[in-house]
Specification:
By secondary structure, this protein is mostly helical. It has helices at about 1-20, 35-45, 50-80, 85-104. Helix content is about 80%, strand content about 0%.
């Protein structure tokens, strides 16, 4: 029985070689591993202008987060020095900074 199995295996190999010799059999392409960064860059290229705008808005929002305590310091210093005429302008500027920061 083992001879029959070996012969059938040999016949199978010979048939495969004949098929390959007659027709060119292409092997399916091996799927490549694509890194997540490359996938992300593919989408970023399509939306380049929007991404640049978003990066600037992100940086502006972060700058606004740092500016708010800085303006509060100015208001407190004017209160201590009794410069009451400067406080409304500083508060208005602070309100604009906070509104723009939290809008985006």
């Amino acid at each position: 029985m083992s001879n029959q199995v070996t012969q059938s295996a040999d016949n199978h190999d010979e048939m495969q070689e004949e098929l390959i010799g007659k027709k060119k059999v292409q092997e399916p392409p091996v799927p490549r591993e694509v890194s997540p960064v490359k996938k992300l860059m593919h989408y970023i290229k399509k939306e380049r202008a929007l991404m640049i705008f978003a990066i600037f808005m992100l940086l502006g929002g972060a700058a606004g987060e740092f500016a708010a305590p800085y303006y509060i310091k100015f208001v407190i210093n004017d209160l201590v020095q009794k410069n009451y005429h400067e406080i409304p302008y500083l508060c208005l500027q602070l309100l604009c900074i906070v509104a723009v920061t939290y809008l985006y």
